[in-house]
Amino acid sequence: MSETPQQPAIEVHNLVKTFAGLTAVNDISFTVPRGEIIGFLGPNGAGKSTTMRILTGYLPATSGLVSICGFRVADDPDAVKRRVGYMPENNPLPEDMRVSEYLYFRGRLKEVARRKLGPRIDEVLELCDLKRVRHKIIGKLSKGFRQRVGIAESVLAEPPVIIMDEPTIGLDPHQILIVRDLIASLRGRMTVLISSHILPEIEMTCDRVLIINQGRIVAQGTPAELRREVLGQSAYEIEAAGPMGSLQFVLGSIVPGLSVASEGPVDCLGFRKIKLKTLSEEDAGEAILRACLSEGLRVRALSRAHPTLEDVFLAATRRSWDAVVEDPRDGGRP
Amino acid sequence: MLLVSPSTYVAAVSFLSVMGFIFTNILEKYSTAPQEASPATVFFSVYFLPVIFMVPLLTMKCLAEERRLGTIETLLTTPVTTTEVVLGKYGAAYLLYLAFWASTSGLFYILKRFAGDPRLIDPGPILGGYLFIAVSGLLFVSIGVFTSALSRNQAVAGLLCTTILIGIIFGGRYLGSAAWLDRESLAPLKAAVSYAQVSQHFMDFTRGVVDTRELLFYLSGTVLSLIFSIFSVEAKLLHS
Q1: In A, residues 53-112, which contact B (CB 8 Å cutoff)?
Q2: At A160, phi and psi to the nearest 5?
């Protein structure tokens, strides 16, 4: 198979991986077009790292078909490895090498020509803000620097596909911002697959999100799509004081499907927080406000709650757990 | 990796001081009374001492540490095969082993320069001794690489290597003199044991006898243990 620009960067069909009877990845299929940044979400032990390792050709799959840029991982591992920059979980680095030595060594391993390697190392050091530590020994660097050395290494050979397993773990907010910009700067040029626990991170950088739980994909799409699909509702929060008795009824009549989800305790000024939810996508803020005022309530605040990816993630993984519990073949094991 | 890490130089210095100490001891003996063998023969006859200590220390790190740190994952996701990785590690360790031994040639140079007695420097045993070191080193270092592939713990790898080396170097001598092997039915086994006598090989080499069967013994042993190392690295990936 030859490389053509039409072929998607990553193609996975019915991927299964079992370890001694334990199914880590259970029939996963997805496609990533070129130039997209895709986020891989899932609780611990969901099979994220295993999937990534199979994509890089480090682990063999039990069954299924995986191809990178049109090259099958099982048939042509060398072609795949030339096209993938991989940063494993926990970012293992040799302790007693200097940063520039390490990058030179990795560049040569990845078959970057000697002539090009020097300028390219300068470039990635600049990109990852590592110029200051280029002559330091890796074992003595702080976590943030080590993490950036790992990222620099994965983009070093300019591969079309970059796979990073939790690249922002252990970084401070400022460094996370740098890494986020760095990943965003690769958009369009390289296909990036990142896994992360930090959900706002994924939400900001990724074009598309895959949520995986217990070896299965439980949801996929853009963050906005996921919100709609998984939560399927919008929520409002209102702080008001006054007679609440008929509120539920009035609200139901002006906005169909709107109901009171919860009511908070009354504070010293007589206000209480009320959470409302609706299934409709339209903005009902104005109608709610008008209804409250006509009911004689004094309103202090009204806001539309934006569900974060975190809510989506929790809902999606909970949903899949429920599905597993209900699955009779599984013997009811959660 | 080996040349940039300071531990290599520490090892080289200590190796050279131990060998220098042994060499001085031998020379002192020669200065008090005339001896039968040339100093080179006596010097190389303690080859097992550095082999048993140096080879495990040089090789135990090579694959065990890659696995413990997890860098084997980044290493194997570059366009290199497991075979290339194992051969690379083996080649580096073997060259370093040779370099350590080559540094002891300085001792002979000093002796030649200052002793002024040509009888002390006999080129035959010296060349034979170095040849033996180079050939037997092939096998010893490959055993070190193999044990390093077996465990992620360097200490376990090192101890395993020492045990196997002792088994190869002294086990042959012990089995060769074992009475139960003299039985008629075990004659082929007896022949095999006498063929695998490392100390006998050493005597032959220093006497200038280079037997191709002995070369084959070391070469085939090296190839076998390298193949096992490659299998072991790959098997650990499959069952990780």
Answers
A1: 53, 56-60, 78, 81-82, 84, 86-88, 90, 92-98, 101, 106, 109-111
A2: -70, -25
